[in-house]
Amino acid sequence: MPSIVPTKLLAGVTVPDTPLIDKALAFARAHCDEFTYNHVVRSWLFGQYIGDHIPEFKERDIEVQAIAAILHDLGWATSGDLVSKDRRFEVDSAEGTRAFLIREGQKEDWDAHRIQLAWDAVALHTTHSIALYKQLEVKLCSMGIFADFLGPERSPGGVLTREVWNGIIAEFPRLGFRGEIKRILCGLCSTKPATTYDNFVAEFGVAYVEGYSLEGKRFVDVTAVAED
């Protein structure tokens, strides 16, 4: 992308302003409920602010970071055919992001490397312990998303202040965050449980979903019957 990118102010944060980012925002709004839309935009804004205030992230691709953050939960979509029956929601989100970029991005700007970078940022966003060792865009996408869960006081470097947080929340409200996260993740455990057994979503199934069980599904169960 060009070294100089137009910017605008959104919820008190200076963000890149490109036609493709606008299309990504419209796509997320069209396919996700209001809770999910607000969450992904907050995640983008938190990540943008953190990245702008930590020198390590100066050379990042801000358009990749933006689009990955905005589209990172397409696997929670409430319309269209973005949600599969047999893939983790992170993979559904990454595949939806790839399809969006191939369809809407300019071919001369979005080569295989940039598209793969966006795919990785989305697919790994919940696997913080791996994302933090990947490229800047992948790392920062995950940081921004985790900031929405952990709050400003636990943000990387402590650069995300409560004042900035409150300004973003005022424009993109949390809408009962804890209850909505529980609803969505329990829904995955109910509708496609096989995609949850090897990841953190299973914890919601075990805790809250009647009939959900990890018996025989844990890796320790697999190794127990492996040939010696």
UniProtKB/TrEMBL annotation:
Domain HD: 36-130
InterPro entries named among the record's database cross-references: HD/PDEase_dom, HD_domain
This protein's name: HD domain-containing protein
Any Pfam family: HD
